[in-house]
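User: I'll paste a sequence; please echo it back and then give the predicted structure.

Assistant: Echoing your sequence first, then the prediction.
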Amino acid sequence: MEYYVSNISEVKKEPVQVKGSKGAYIQWLITREKGAHYAVRKFTLEPNGIIPMHLHKYQETVVIVKGKCKVCVANNSYELKEGDYIFIDGGVKHSIINDNNDQLEFFCIIDYTDDMSIQAIDEKCG
C-alpha cells in the first residue's frame, strides 16, 4: 500500500492487555497490515489509569499529547507532560501511571521484532 488516510475516531479503542492494566485503552493506527515496518498506536488513560510494569523486545517512543503522567523506566521515575517524549529500548522494564484527575493521551511508536510478546512484571512503580 503506497499510503493510507484515516481518522483516529474511526479506529476501535480496545482495553490494554498488559496484566493489571486499569482504565487504559489502545488504538492501533498504523500497522504492518497496512504495509508499515513499524506501528503507531494511540493510548488513552483515564484518571488513575495504569499500565503496570512490563517489558518486551521491541523499542518504543512515547509522545505525550494531553495530560500528565508518571513513567517508571528501569529504576527511574519521571513526570511527563504534554509535549514531552521518552524513548524506551527493548528489554527495559517500564510502566505508565495517570495519577491525575484529567485524561492522559499519548502516541506510542514501536518497531516490529521477531517476538512481540509482553511480559508483565510484579513490581510497583517507584
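The chain has a mean pLDDT of 96. The chain has no helices and ten strands.
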